[in-house]
Amino acid sequence: MIPKIINFINQYHMIEKGDRIVVGVSGGADSVCLLYVLKEISSLCGTKVIAVHVNHGLRGEEADRDEDFVSNLCEHLGIECHKFHYNIKSIAKQEGLSEEETGRKIRYQTFLEVCNQHKCNKIAIAHNKNDNAETVLFHLFRGTGIRGMTGIEPNRIFSKKHGTIRIIRPLLCIERMEIENYLKEKSFLYRTDSTNLSDEYSRNKIRNHILSYVTKEINPQAVHNIAEAASKLREAEEFIDSIIEAKYRELVSSVDQEIRLPVAGFETLANVIKKGIVRKIMESLSGSYKDLESTHVDAVLTLLDKQVGRQIHLPYHMIAERDYHDLVFYQSTGKNKEASCLRDINPVAIEIPGSCYIPELNKYLAAQVIIREKTEPIPKSSCMKWFDYDKIENAVVIRPRKEGDYIQIHSTGGRKKLKDYLIDRKVPQKIRDHLLFMADGSHIMWVLDDEGRISEKYKVDETTSRILLMKLLDAEENEDDR
After folding, report:
1. What is the CATH number of domain 252-333?
2. Total-model pTM
3. Is residue 37's pLDDT more than 80?
4. How far apart are the C-alpha atoms of 366 and 382, rounded to whole Å?
5. What is the pLDDT of residue 480?
6. I want to staple 436 with a disulfide (CB 3.0 to 4.6 A). Which of 249, 291, 448, 460 is the partner?
7. Which residues line the annotated binding site for ATP?
């Protein structure tokens, strides 16, 4: 068995000379076997092994006896041992998690803390081939994609906060029966956790009933076959992931707290690649993969056939939205939420002549009336505009759009609703909601964006005698002028 484990360790480059390894030791058969294996390897590779035992406070005297057993075993082997006590029941209640999930979370946090304190770079966990098969079945029954069917990873990065710390699983190549036979052959003692024999947890039901039945009644190689299938699926997933990564880099861009995915280059891809890209976007935006399910990915993909402006609300306050040319992803608690409040600001009246500060644009708007000189050319700038002053009917204001707004688009008098004008220009709804406009009543005189469109009604022509000159100035530029 030991040569098989060593070959597996070498195959996945788990242990190298000089490694400092934290190993989780519960006292059960798997972790005791792992401790003996690492002890043997450490003498060959010059590695340092530190044992960590976590008492969850759930099994009273039984847990205390497990702790004493681990202490004595480590002392016998000459291995440094650190013991920790937690009230998992209380922590689970406070955090709204199951005791099983809380225990796992606390264990890994503890392993990481010991790694940081003792400058270790590896965490060794005693998962075996049976655990891998149970994990595959658990994910399958709960509902999963390819990733969930790949089982437990032999070697992965766990943290990079204080240098790279990896989780390694040297026993993933052997079955539980092989471990128990090895310990029996060597007369090595171990503890049995009574909760593993109960059906309180879903994994125990899979272990004690489903897998045991399958191996006895259908195929004694079932555990091996499930683990092998998971390994092959992992290889396929790695290939698919390489394509997803390449297409992600090619297509996806980040601008102003938004992630944009162009529909034209995306919709022709194979479904598995599209789903992978969407999941990668959601994980990047949320910073997590927990609670991101295939139903969320499928919902986002339905936007490809939806009209502009349709949205899907996702976990972690994320929103996916169909734009004219892109799928846009953003978090509603960020910049976009603040921008959407722009429609609630009060109109700002423009003093003519005079100037006013527009905080939403961080600009000053300067206004003056001049007499038209027939030979003077009309400016062509998005920041400075001329208007026929005598055609203005109401007080001029700066404000967001509102119901009933329109703009004149033809010199002969043809009007268009402002909403329709912006839609024709393919301006996304969330952008429309935080544009500002200069208005004469419901008539939009000037759209204050990069295009800077003004209404045909107010354009200077041969009959104009007085010109309203309006100029947008950066706040810094205006301060310098003063």
Report:
1. 3.30.465.60
2. 0.64
3. yes
4. 14
5. 45
6. 448
7. 26-31
